[in-house]
Fold this sequence. Notes:
This protein has helices at 26-33, 68-84, 103-113, 125-133, 164-169, 183-192, 222-229, 246-249, 268-280, 300-306, 320-332, 350-357, 372-383, 399-405, 426-433, 445-454, 457-464, 475-483, 497-510; strands at residues 10-15, 37-40, 57-60, 88-93, 117-120, 146-150, 173-177, 200-205, 213-218, 235-239, 261-264, 284-287, 291-294, 314-317, 344-347, 387-393, 409-420, 439-442, 469-472, 490-491. By secondary structure, it is α/β, with parallel strands linked by helices. The strands form 4 sheets. Strands 3-2-4-1-5 form a 5-stranded parallel sheet, with helices on both faces. Helix 18 (475-483) links the parallel strand 19 (469-472) and strand 20. The longest helix has 17 residues, at 68-84. It is elongated. The two termini are 53 Å apart. The structure holds S-adenosyl-L-homocysteine (SAH). S-adenosyl-L-homocysteine is lined by residues 18-19, 43, 93-96, 99-101, 124-125, 128-129, 177-178, 204, 206-209, 233-236.
Amino acid sequence: MAGVSGSSGSVALVGAGPGHPGLLTLRAAQLLAQADLVLYDRLVPVRLLDHVPASARRICVDALHGTQPERWSEIYQLMIEAAQQGQRVVRLKGGDPFVFGRGGEEAEALRRAGIPYEIVPGVTAALGAGAFAGIPLTHRQHVSAVAFITGHEKPDKTDSFLDWAELARFPGTLVVYMGMARLPHIVEMLIAKGKSPQTPAAAVHWATTSRQRTVTAPLAELPAAVQQAGLKAPSLIIIGSVVRLRTELAWFEARPLLGKRILVTRPRHQAGEMMARLEELGAEVVLSPAVEIREPADWAPVDRALSNLSAYQWLVFTSANGVEALIRRLRQLGHDLRILGPLRLAVIGPATADALRRYHLEPDLVPPFYDSERLAAALKERVAGQRVLLARADRGRDVLREQLAGVAEVEQIAVYAQVDAISPNAEALAMLRHGEIDSVTLTSSNIARALVRALDEGALQLIRSGAVKLVSISPITSAAIRELGLPVAAEAREPTAEGVVQALIALANANEPEA
Ligand code: SAH
């Protein structure tokens, strides 16, 4: 790698791929995870910055001052200075750095400055658009060649590098980058030089992302079709008979949550699975945890209970976080799982049960429905006259203890603290305020309350008007939302992450405009 010379600084010119967070190379993810400074282009999806350590500096180069040539020298300077100070710099570029990405010029600047560098290829937009629009760029029965063309040459260029007469004769698929502004001109030129006006053609907007839209038309009619559909940059233009295959091969644009931007508000360590699932369904996911999990203010009551476990017959968990926190504490105190041996274990629902199973512990009781009332009802019959240890958050509902208190001896310990997120994702909240979020998932009453505390009046107004929809995980959470004076657009049938996902799909289908 670039940093072969030990701890000295280096720069990696890294392709970020066309937009889909999964279309990043392993090498790119590795370099991002080790970066001290990341300089990224506007087209790079923010989601990719999740790989970057929180301590690293991130700079969007489009936000730098100056017009383009000055900005470029500013980018070079930033990269070079940081590397000279021993930092690991990632210059993250959309698609591939060497395909219309100025990667060549940037590498040259680094070479001149004597900075060690590495170049990591990325999935270029043409490949992303081909795959995600169902247009094979080559095909044995159609074409054996493909050309990548820029539709935007330097405006000051007097003699073009592009020979449109040659391109019109090119025996293969043409893929035009940066061509939207000059689309009518490009089409006119190709047809004037002999390309058939009937050649199948497509424009693919924001390929591989939730915002992907594709318009197809015979070449001569493409500019009008694009205009009618309101398609803008960034888009790729694909010209050639392979475009016809799309009618059979398209797959991505049928995803149920395509075009939906969804705000996920659970803590980061619990959000991964849900985010991946929503993305798989075509949504764009924005994460802004409304709450964070911390150590409890005081371990003393927990430690006392853990050193006296033989006094209890039941240990009850009301969240996966509780399981993690209690087991971590056990180990910090020098114990291991065997100390839980004689206890019966109860959990509130399947996610908490799974948390136990990750430690090869099988719960003795999972209520058939998942809320405190039903857990209490199910427990009541089993715990009468016994001693119950309740491991929970420092805030939350008191239902369990109240309901069990009549029949059993209940001790409650706060094994973790839940606090409002200290630094909510400012970008995500701004999106919410600007009406750029379709739905917000709320997976607990505490999360609902914390989110509302983080929002301003403008955002709340959008929620009240129904422009931003709240999707709740359970009747309890819905009640908390309504108590805050906000409407619930949909509620999960089953109080699980998958239940929330299904509610989002139902909501998307219900709002589908009847075209
Ligand atoms: N280095 C990049 C290209 C940069 S030029 C790459 O390899 O993909 C910028 C142009 O790329 C845009 O004007 C647009 O034509 C195209 N482009 C980039 N990402 C795109 C996407 N997700 N969908 C459609 N076109 C895209």
